[in-house]
């Protein structure tokens, strides 16, 4: 097998494509032949030693992937060789093969495309957990999605629309706004045009007839968090998902008080660990939504697995719309 090995997490330049022994699955593990893996923002942080989960080097990055079970370890009964699966294991995906914990792999229906499957679990589970579970989104409510053209953003647009919400997609360019509308957003807010906090708030007020959004999806953080929160509707819910924009905002605590609004933390990975049955049920629902055509991952491009550094460069330069997927030639 071959894999991108990180022996020293000092950045993408430290990764090396190397030949390694194909692993034998241990108790509770399966050997996966990887068809495709997607790049998520934590995959960038982890090779820079900036993510909360810090694997011991050397390790193979790549948290999310799909492929086929080739062997099962002792104690594994729900998966069989030859079965197609999608896995989210934190590491191991940027390779041709990996030994994965069987309980982190979900069997896929035959009609589930493996490129889509590799770009599915993290963003759609995060979006569903945020909007349906944590925000209790109701039909007819208005959702503002910040960073709308990213992985979590595009998934949130689709989940919110299927739940019956009106969606305003905020993104940093006209083409990202256009993409958001193509996948279902009702309105867009281009913050390359509305750069000042006051202009951003005025446009959001116009788009909501002065009421403000009921739910704000924020995987970005940074300078827009405060003006967005200042615009939230009465009893609004502000979903704190991540800080892809860099700085962690420092919101004045009088703001939730004045609006009767909630700051809601969204940590899907911890939810999956603490509430595995609820998470499994959610993933089953999302798989059905996919098969019914309600949701579909936005794939910016598909690259050979050997071109992983190019994928990282696109992400670092904020050139990705949706997700980049790496495929193996088998």
TrEMBL record:
<dbReference type="InterPro" id="IPR011032">
    <property type="entry name" value="GroES-like_sf"/>
</dbReference>
<dbReference type="GO" id="GO:0008270">
    <property type="term" value="F:zinc ion binding"/>
</dbReference>
<keyword id="KW-0808">Transferase</keyword>
<dbReference type="InterPro" id="IPR013149">
    <property type="entry name" value="ADH-like_C"/>
</dbReference>
<protein>
    <submittedName>
        <fullName>Phthiocerol/phenolphthiocerol synthesis polyketide synthase type I PpsC</fullName>
        <ecNumber>2.3.1.41</ecNumber>
    </submittedName>
</protein>
<dbReference type="Pfam" id="PF00107">
    <property type="entry name" value="ADH_zinc_N"/>
</dbReference>
<dbReference type="InterPro" id="IPR002364">
    <property type="entry name" value="Quin_OxRdtase/zeta-crystal_CS"/>
</dbReference>
<dbReference type="InterPro" id="IPR020843">
    <property type="entry name" value="ER"/>
</dbReference>
<dbReference type="GO" id="GO:0016491">
    <property type="term" value="F:oxidoreductase activity"/>
</dbReference>
<dbReference type="GO" id="GO:0004315">
    <property type="term" value="F:3-oxoacyl-[acyl-carrier-protein] synthase activity"/>
</dbReference>
<feature type="domain" description="Enoyl reductase (ER)">
    <location>
        <begin position="11"/>
        <end position="326"/>
    </location>
</feature>
<keyword id="KW-0012">Acyltransferase</keyword>
<dbReference type="InterPro" id="IPR036291">
    <property type="entry name" value="NAD(P)-bd_dom_sf"/>
</dbReference>
<dbReference type="InterPro" id="IPR013154">
    <property type="entry name" value="ADH-like_N"/>
</dbReference>
<dbReference type="InterPro" id="IPR051397">
    <property type="entry name" value="Zn-ADH-like_protein"/>
</dbReference>
<dbReference type="Pfam" id="PF08240">
    <property type="entry name" value="ADH_N"/>
</dbReference>
